[in-house]
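Hey,

Quick one before I head out. I ran the complex with PBG overnight. Inputs first:
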Amino acid sequence: MAKKIVLPDFPMSRLRRLRSNQILREMISETGLNVTDFIYPLFVSEGMKSKKEINSMPGIFQHSVESAVKECESALNLGVKAVILFGIPAHKDEKGSEAFNKNGIIQKTVREIKKNVPEIIVITDVCLCEYTSHGHCGILKEGIVDNDITLEYLVKEAVSHAEAGADIIAPSDMMDGRIKAIRIGLDKANFSGIPVMAYSAKYSSSFYGPFREAAESAPQFGDRKTYQMDYRNSDEALREVYLDIKEGADIIMVKPALSYLDIICKVKQSFNIPVAAYNVSGEYSMIKSAAAAGWIDGEKAMMEILYSIKRAGADMIITYFALEAAKVLKNSTV
Ligand code: PBG
């Protein structure tokens, strides 16, 4: 931590001195943003022949397996070296069986990506909401998501992703004890080398709206407040993170990012573990729609947001802007 200093008064202190030209500003800039900080989310849909743009997320698509592979090639060409996959199965049921089907959409996609673009890091989102007919993130018992039964299904899903070749497993369901259960499950299946990226502080947020259209995963009744966090709380986020670290998480995540920069900052100051932040769908759509209306400069707003997430303390950012921001970083001359 920097020592507190007492600045001399004006006119001795003039903070504008170091802002006077671009090179100086570069020299004293405190926050770096690198293309290797980005993780690019991809939606892969089983019924899809080619790709289809998502209405509320211009520039983002539901992919077929083939177009997902192509998108990974484009990402890699721009220097983006990690993707996170979300699957949309052709059939949903009460237990989300397609989530752990050896030939399910994610399992197929992982195999194809690893075959064709082996250098890219493939992270898989482990959750049941895209696979269950009721759209909740777990198994229901008398209309309530049952924690401990859900764990067994999450473990099956995580192991089947690892068997398909996933490099990192990212559980986003928010059940208690899932990190421990998944860690033990992976180790038993001989995947002790596969890291777990835990969606630890995941808030119940209206900013997931466009994602739910993209992943066709909106809950068919009620909401996710019995398992996702209440946005009024931050101590609770630290407890979530602490427990996930104790259970074996290798990377922890704060989600969403923008209304939660304080949480990213507190987590980074409290624990010495890599922190990911998820710049979620609603945060993307807001920028895109305001830019399309001519109300803001979309590219500049995008960069400001990504830097702010880094400044808050994130080591990596899951963002739909990944490819666009990579192009900006590539072309920036200074
Ligand atoms: C699945 C999941 C969600 C997101 C990531 N994983 C949706 C949800 O919890 O409803 C949201 C990501 C985004 O909005 O970009 N549980």
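The two ends are 29 Å apart (CA to CA).

Talk tomorrow,
K.
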